[in-house]
Structures
1.
Amino acid sequence: MDRILSGIKPTGQLTLGNYIGAIKNFSRVQYDGEPFLFIADLHALTLPIDPEVLRKNSRDVAAYYLAAGLDPKHSTIFLQSDVSTHSELAIILQNYLYMGELSRMTQFKDKSQKMKEEAIGLGLFAYPVLMAADIVLYDAKRIPVGEDQVQHVELARDLVKRFNNRYGEVLTMPRAEVAKVGKRIMSLSDPTKKMSKSEPKGDIYLSDSLEVMRKKIMSAVTDLGHEIKYDPENKPGISNLMTILSSLSGKSFEEIEKEFEGKGYGDFKRAVADAVVKEMEPFKAKYEEIVASGLVDKVLEEGAKKAYDASKVVLTRVQKAVGLYRK
Ligand code: ATP
Ligand code: MG
């Protein structure tokens, strides 16, 4: 069974984008392989964050994983910072990724854009190094991510090639897997921008009440005209809502276009809101149940042990290959 690896940064309240592009996807593929799913709390330190907020968000991500149906008996769920091999391997791997390629990463450019150069943390720049370590530590072949993370997985692939050329077949080649629909959910207030938990505009948060979710969809920015048609270039607002509806209902864009032929934006938005509420109602109830049960701490503790044992094997292999291992 191939190993599957992915993570979410506990930088803020999770969004519908994280749900569709990541969490829902994880639960869909979990029994196709052996998943290692983590909460990327070390990555969350790459931009300023309040310690208590980070602690709360981290446990929240774990609770949302479980609420989405991830089975801790099958999927290893853990905190990145609980497993020291991630940091140990990153220190080694930083020597095999170069300044030029790191400075070309879109996420780095986006997130550092408004910062003064003297104030940009090294961790933000080196983010893809730690992410490459996260990936290769488990010999994972399959990396389910949203579209925005594909560039980082590609860089991890470059690193694997470079490393193996020098030391032999030490690291396993990973591959990004993006969902056909829902790989990039856009902001409801600016459908040309990605919905991101750290950019508060136009997000639907998983913590929003069902009424607030409905309201946000009803007031989503739409496009000129009145046709329900999938055309991201000319109708980004409607296309984004169609993507949300399609990924939650399983209906194709053609089916949705047919269903709403001759109907207005109001009817269509109501249908999108209904689909979101139908999906979120049981999910949010499950989340509350899990938070109340105290299951999260137990899952994280057991997950950390399993992740450590699995990753130690790879770390040792790398240490031996580069000459750091004495035996
Ligand atoms: P941040 O603003 O802190 O970067 P984020 O919302 O981009 O937060 P990440 O923790 O960076 O979330 O990403 C977690 C996972 O969710 C990744 O696989 C990412 O590709 C996916 N993802 C994030 N935003 C979206 C989106 N709008 N649509 C689909 N997938 C998304
Ligand atoms: Mg992100």
2.
Amino acid sequence: MRDARRAAIMQMDWAALKAAVAQCTACVLHATRTNTVFGVGDENADWMFIGEGPGADEDALGDPFVGQAGRLLDNMLAAISLERGKNVYIANVVKCRPPGNRNPQPDEADRCEPHLERQIELIRPKLIVALGRVAALNLLDRDASIASLRGRVLDYKGIPLLVTYHPAYLLRSLTEKAKAWEDLCFARKTMEGFHAQNVIRNDQ
Ligand code: URA
């Protein structure tokens, strides 16, 4: 049953995937949601930023990162010349708000995981940036501190993945903002490296 559901999701196109998320009742989070929060942005983006799950503002509006943390994320994107909707896609590990903004439970993230996996497959980003520990944990399938994961090119099913702090954490810990800035510079350099490799390959 579980495998069949996953296999069906893995075949979906964008329209089917959006409809499946909108109607999903696979975990308890559906019971308390106002809106599902599918994700937003360029469906052919090179960059994908992934957070943990919708908060109250996102639940109300149906779009990811639209609250205070979202405004900071938009500024972080602008710092590396990205703009919501232009060459960047923003999504979350879970598509429904965990009540009281608690972290998603492992079984909730697990049930939602095929949705995110299919989104990533359809977008085929060149680089994924995991925002915060919950996103990193779920995408990398291992628990580790952000400090130990930052500054490294990690891997999500063959796609390079970097980790930085969650914008909501940065709002509470202003001293970490400089580290997030370092991470964004590292991300930009990493992406520039991919572009340079492509130019060299195309010239050969
Ligand atoms: N925090 C997240 O992880 N995702 C959102 O969409 C909003 C806040």
